[in-house]
Amino acid sequence: MTVAIRPAKISDIPAITRIYAHAVEHGTASFELTPPDQAEITRRKNDLTGKGYPYLAGEIEGVLAGYAYAGDYRARPAYRLTVEDSVYIAPDRHRRGIGRALLAALIEAAAARGFRQMIAVIGDSPRQAASIGLHEALGFHHVGILQDVGFKHGRWLDSVLMQRELGTGAKTAP
Q1: Mind listing the pLDDT tens digit for each residue in 123-136?
Q2: d(C-alpha 117, C-alpha 159), whole Å
Q3: Would you call 5 helix, strand, or coil by DSSP?
């Protein structure tokens, strides 16, 4: 099984919307409570790509199996070289290497655009061991846990913070 990674296209929006809706409705990786519609997903994608952030699609045999993007870690100008990653995989495609392929390509694309740090904010750490392991395998290290910062599906959720240098990281000035 080969995962083809490419920039996401507008024609991917219906599949991206379905993948994300499942994650919102059934999971705790996203702290959104109501899935956004296709128009909102389109707006978000266009906003990110318009600002120069990478937004990638992973497909297997022509079918979208997952997507990943980088975006603002924080809005203040001093954070402009730091991005937060997001990776979502179709529910029937988990544990097949798609997330790894997408995250590796996202790291490369963000570094190529001059970003210096990538942050992973992983919600509900006890149930997201696979995501934590994936990030560790690709060079992220733990920087902290925000305890009980979200409430979803009737329970409090924490967020694990992980970080990875991109390019020269903080070794040189921008």
Answers
A1: 987 778 889 999 99
A2: 18
A3: strand
Beta-bridge partner residues of 70: 85
For residue 36, the cross-strand partners are: none
CB atoms within 10 A of CB 58: 26
Q: Is residue 154 part of a domain?
A: yes
Would the pTM count as exceeding 0.85? Answer: yes
CATH code assigned at 19:
3.40.630.30
Give the residue numbers spanning the domain of 159: 4-165
Neighbouring residues of 7: CB distance < 8 A, sequence distance ≥ 6 = 49, 54, 55, 56, 57
Whether residue 57 lies inside any domain: the answer is yes
3-state secondary structure of 151: strand
